[in-house]
Design a protein that fits this description.
Blueprint (H helix, E strand, L loop, with lengths): L4 E3 L6 E7 L2 E5 L13 H14 L25 E5 L2 E5 L5 H18 L6 E3 H4 L1
Parallel strand pairs: 4-6
Antiparallel strand pairs: 1-2, 2-3, 4-5
């Protein structure tokens, strides 16, 4: 496998990314929660079962690392720029943070330097 693979299953979304030298990154388990915790046995088992279904060779693979992280989001999964006095915050980029952060930074800069209201501007009251 030389290219990333994305399994679009309604219950178990999965991506497999080849990293070279026979190393692959598996991911895409999502549990909506306000708590950042360790990986659960169920989420790891479902992820590995899905990978095994795609290629049974994963059944003999070694697990080098299991990681968990949060992707902050608002209820509507849209980013927001909030202003509270002199504090401007840009949050809620969810899984698109890497792609959206340069645009959001430009919007914040335009707001501060030019007074241009960004499309995702929310007051502090709306933000809470």
């Amino acid at each position: 496998m030389k290219r990333p693979v994305r399994l679009l299953h309604p219950r178990i979304p999965l991506y497999i990314v080849p990293r070279g030298n026979g190393i692959f990154m598996l991911g895409a388990t999502m549990i909506e929660s306000s708590a950042k915790a360790n990986a659960t046995v169920r989420s790891v088992m479902e992820l590995l079962n899905a990978a095994y279904t795609i290629n049974p060779a994963f059944g003999e693979a070694e697990i080098l690392e299991i990681g968990v992280d949060s992707r902050p989001a608002f209820v509507d999964n849209l980013p927001k720029i909030t202003v509270n006095g002199n504090i401007v915050s840009a949050n809620g980029l969810y899984r698109h943070g890497f792609l959206l952060s340069p645009t959001l930074a430009n919007m914040v800069s335009d707001y501060i330097e030019l007074g241009v209201s960004p499309p995702w501007l929310a007051t502090q009251k709306e933000h809470q």
